[in-house]
Specification:
Blueprint (H helix, E strand, L loop, with lengths): L8 E4 L2 E4 L10 H5 L2 E11 L4 E5 L1 H15 L7 H15 L5 E9 L11 E9 L11 E10 L16 H13 L4 E5 L12 E6 L2 E4 L10 H12 L4 E3 L4 H6 L2 E6 L3 E8 L2 E2 L7 H14 L10 E3 L4
The structure holds pyridoxal-5'-phosphate.
Pyridoxal-5'-phosphate binds next to helix 5.
Length: about 300
C-alpha cells in the first residue's frame, strides 16, 4: 500500500525505516555544521507506461562522488549500493507520482567540523507537491542579491554540501523580505552566477546564454540538459560571463534545476523581461525537458532509469 507522507519509508544507515524512526544525534557534525553532501534526484511518473523514471541518475551519482572527494568524506557505499538503496526505498513506498529523492551522505558520530567519519547515508523520497513554494510559481519576480555567491576559494559552489545552502538562504530570505520570489546572485567578480537553488539562462537575439561553470555555479545537471536539448533544437548556446545589466535587457530568462525544472523569470529588480510571462523558447525547452524526463526522447533514452521491474 502506498504510504502517506508523514509515515513514508526512508532508507537510513542500511535499513528501510519509518521516517519518524530515522534519528540523528544532535552532536553529529552533520547536525552541527551542515557536514553532508547530497543530491536531489527527480523522478517522473509515466502514466502510459505505468513506470517511474529517475532522471540522469548516474550523473547525480557522479556529482555526489565528486562532492564527497572534495569535502573528504569517504563514501562507505559502492555505486551499485547507492542505486539499490534508491530503488528499494521508492519501491517500498510504491510511488506512482513525480517525486524528488534526497540522497545524502553525512558525517555522523560525536566529532567536529574537521571529522570525516563515521560517514553514512539516508535516502528520502519527497513527493513533488511538497517542495518549496518558489519552485511551484508560474514566472518569478527576482532581485539581484546584495549577498555575493560563495566562491571557489571560500566555499566552492561546485560542492553540493548542506553548509553551502546558508549562502543560498541569505539571498532567498532577503528576496522574500523585499517582496520578490527569489534572487539571482553575482559572483566575486561582479558577474551573474546563479539562483539560490538553480542555474540561470538568458535569451538575447535568439541565443541562449548561461554563465560559465567557473563563474561560481553548481555543475547543474539541468543546465547540462538544457544545453543539450537546445543544441538538438538548433538553438545557439553561448556559455560566457554575463553582466548584471544584461539581465535587465534580455528577451527571456529562466532559472533551472532538478526541483525548479525550467521556470521563467518575469522580472529582475522590477525590470520586466519580455512580456512578463513565459517566453516562447523557455516554454519550448520546458516541454522538451518534460518529454525527456518521462523517457519520451529517443535520442536521450539513456537519461532515464526505470525504477519498477516490468
Ligand atoms: C545552487 C544550485 N545551483 C544549481 C542547481 C541546479 O542543479 P541541478 O540541475 O543538478 O539540480 C541547484 C540544485 O540542486 C542548486 O542548489
Amino acid at each position: 500500500m502506498k504510504t502517506d507522507v508523514a509515515n513514508r519509508f526512508i532508507w537510513f544507515k542500511g535499513k528501510i525505516v519509518n521516517v519518524n524512526d530515522a534519528k540523528i544525534n544532535v552532536l553529529a557534525p552533520t547536525a552541527q555544521f551542515g557536514l553532508n553532501i547530497f543530491e536531489g534526484i527527480p523522478c517522473y511518473w509515466n502514466d502510459d507506461e505505468k513506470q517511474l523514471y529517475a532522471f540522469r541518475l548516474e550523473d547525480h551519482y557522479d556529482r555526489l562522488l565528486r562532492s564527497a572527494r572534495l569535502i573528504q568524506i569517504d563514501c562507505p557505499y559502492s555505486r551499485e549500493e547507492l542505486k539499490k538503496a534508491f530503488i528499494d526505498v521508492i519501491k517500498m513506498n510504491e510511488y506512482d507520482e513525480n517525486i524528488s529523492v534526497r540522497q545524502t551522505l553525512f558525517v555522523d558520530g560525536f566529532g567536529s567540523w574537521g571529522s570525516s567519519e563515521p560517514a553514512d547515508m539516508f535516502v528520502a523520497p519527497v513527493p513533488r507537491g511538497r517542495i518549496s513554494k518558489e519552485y511551484n510559481k508560474k514566472a518569478l519576480n527576482c532581485s539581484v542579491a546584495s549577498w555575493q555567491r560563495i566562491s571557489e576559494n571560500t566555499l566552492s559552489p561546485r560542492i553540493k554540501c548542506g553548509a553551502n545552502y546558508i549562502n543560498s538562504r541569505a539571498g532567498q530570505r532577503e528576496a522574500l523580505r523585499n517582496g520578490y520570489d527569489t534572487c539571482i546572485f553575482l559572483n566575486q567578480a561582479g558577474k551573474v552566477s546563479e539562483g539560490p537553488g538553480s542555474c540561470l539562462f538568458i535569451i538575447s537575439g535568439g541565443t541562449l546564454i548561461t554563465p560559465l561553470l567557473t563563474d561560481s555555479v553548481l555543475e547543474s545537471i539541468t543546465r547540462d540538459t538544457v544545453i543539450k536539448l537546445a543544441c538538438d533544437l538548433n538553438i545557439p548556446v553561448s556559455e560566457r560571463s554575463i553582466d548584471r545589466t544584461e539581465l535587465y535587457t534580455c528577451d527571456e530568462a529562466f532559472l533551472c534545476g532538478s526541483a525548479m525544472e525550467i521556470t521563467a523569470i518575469s522580472s529582475v529588480d522590477k525590470y520586466i523581461i519580455g512580456n512578463g510571462g513565459t517566453g516562447k523558447i523557455t516554454d519550448l525547452l520546458h516541454k522538451e525537458y518534460l518529454k525527456a524526463a518521462i523517457g519520451q526522447n529517443k535520442k536521450h533514452s539513456d537519461w532515464v532509469t526505470a525504477v519498477y521491474d516490468k
